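Glycylpeptide N-tetradecanoyltransferase
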Amino acid sequence: MPESKDKKGKAAQASNDEDAAKQKLTPKAAEALLENNPALKNELAGLDKDKAAEALRKMDISELLTGLAVGGKNQKDMASYKFWQTQPVPRFDEAAAAANDVGGPIKMIDPEKVSKTPDPLIEGFEWATLDLTKEEELQELWDLLTYHYVEDDNAMFRFRYSKSFLHWALMAPGWKKEWHVGVRATKSRKLVAAISGIPTELRVREQKIKVTEINFLCIHKKLRSKRLAPVLIKEITRRCYLEGIFQAIYTAGVVLPTPVSSCRYYHRPLDWLKLYEVGFSHLPKGSTKARQISKNHLPSVTSTPNLRPMEVKDIDAVHELLERYLKRFDLNQAFSREEIEHWLVHKGGEADREQVVWSYVAEDPETHKITDFFSFYNLESTIIQHPKHDCLRVAYLYYYATETAFTGDMKALKERLLMLMNDALILAKKARFDVFNALTLHDNPLFLEQLKFGAGDGQLHYYLYNYRTAPIPGGVNDKNLPDEKKMGGVGVVML
Ligand SMILES: CC(C)(COP(=O)(O)OP(=O)(O)OC[C@H]1O[C@@H](n2cnc3c(N)ncnc32)[C@H](O)[C@@H]1OP(=O)(O)O)[C@@H](O)C(=O)NCCC(=O)NCCS
């Protein structure tokens, strides 16, 4: 779906393939790449057709795919990242050099030497620590994000994280109030910016590291381009250092120094007509609305035997299965039992909180073993200025695992995932979602295209702060298409 709009997504995958890096594009390939990548197409739209084609042909494919080669924000070299060049992150030219590196911290931090006080803010603003257990403060954060958080390039859609989502995302096991950082206008007390972190553990190749997952960096539209983002990033870094956490993971659609991996967004229409009406999906040339609707039709019942919603009693089994499954990836999250419970089990009965996560397990009726599980979460988007629809209900594929992954039989794994994921689509449709999003991480390249997920124009870059490791594959090849040979890299889903 070249039509898709997405989260934090713009540029694309850093290819590990040295040959690809040296390759130049033929005119035909350039055209195909543009067709597959509307974000690039937009960026080149200002140039006349021949010039754009010529510019494209001259580019290295790998650069093109990381978005480093083209227009505007992606065109910067290291020197123009005035803030990021001062930070302990790898430079763009270090990626290849790190290829044989086991990986490790870039800078050793002495907590004793970390400032005990924040840097001053510009006149009229002050630091705040949000207390999200208080409904009013959760509401303030919700207001800031709902009107000022991530939009697509054409300002048609903006993320609309629900309050229950924020509760779930920011009060995960081990959460710290100090890592819910805000900036208030001194006079009006209004919350005008925020950044947050939660603690967790990652496995990066063989190393287990404690990290902060950074998310929800947001600045009020009226305060943009005033260099406030670096101040926020430095402040949360200081607060993490004080707690003895010296590494972080974060994702963004923009290219910063330097992605450790890049995945592409894919979108599976569940209510094609609505997606078409709101401008999320286009009518492909030569097709009709009726044909698109019937193409995206799903069965009404699931086909995985013994599939049922996950319950508290499944936590240990799912934990064990997911840990084994995730260890197959270079970059993965080392979940605790508590985290599994928090992230995957929807507890009914919290009457005032709407459901955020849906998890299902398949249980062998004889052995009672959990053989498979999958989950998805709800992240709506506001449809900005549309006469008929104001909200897009989007399901995002979250974690999943299957025993079939350990058989060593790729064909069997593919078949199993096709069935499980088709069931996920059916269940999401039943839960009234309009579209189902997934990235090219985990084993997703095995099923995305066959299950009629369309390629998005969004790319999600993964970053590690103060940690260097060789580039990790993002499930796409040098044409930015899902590729089974590029799997095994990213095993972390960021919200
Ligand atoms: C992202 C956002 C906070 C940046 O603020 P801004 O006012 O545009 O930029 P500022 O002048 O404060 O700071 C610019 C610096 O921040 C960096 N920056 C911009 N977006 C960034 C991001 N998503 N993550 C980390 N750094 C980012 C820039 O690269 C620049 O640093 P550089 O000089 O080293 O290149 C703001 O645009 C915003 O709130 N956007 C909507 C929400 C959003 O996109 N959040 C990020 C989700 S990943």
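thats it. The longest strand covers residues 191-204. The two ends are 22 Å apart (CA to CA). bye
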